[in-house]
């Protein structure tokens, strides 16, 4: 049995905001739970940053992420053309480190879906949160 594309789109639409909201909540959780993470542990779980900078306020490690577009891309006929439903977003996560420990995390994200402002940032902090939950790294 094949499912017509329009029906498939209608069936999947309710789940798009749910996933984005979950990822956005994960990013916000990371903003609090990763404070105190040591620099070596941050490198272990988030990888090597795209950019680094230093100032009197500490070191700043920046990660840029453009995850693959989430959602369904299926043409839906409308008067005068078609509509494609897909969600894409980008994120820049900046960790401030003082004395080798994370003190603050800032997000600069752009999202195509409402209620998902920082959803694209979740992959950057997800691995770190997992290691914290498994007690493989500690916050100081």
From TrEMBL:
This is Lipoprotein. Keywords: Signal. The keyword Signal applies. Residues 1-21 form the signal peptide.
């Amino acid at each position: 049995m094949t499912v017509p594309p329009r029906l498939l789109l209608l069936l999947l639409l309710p789940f798009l905001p749910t996933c984005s909201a979950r990822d956005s909540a994960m990013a916000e959780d990371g903003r609090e739970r990763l404070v105190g993470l040591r620099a070596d542990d941050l490198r272990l779980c988030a990888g090597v940053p795209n950019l680094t900078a230093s100032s009197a306020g500490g070191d700043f490690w920046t990660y840029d992420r453009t995850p693959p577009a989430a959602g369904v891309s299926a043409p839906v006929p409308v008067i005068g053309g078609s509509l494609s439903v897909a969600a894409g977003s980008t994120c820049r996560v900046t960790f401030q480190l003082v004395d080798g420990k994370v003190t603050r995390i800032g997000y600069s994200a752009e999202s195509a879906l409402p209620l998902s402002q920082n959803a694209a940032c979740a992959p950057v902090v997800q691995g770190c949160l997992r290691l914290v939950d498994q007690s493989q790294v500690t916050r100081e």
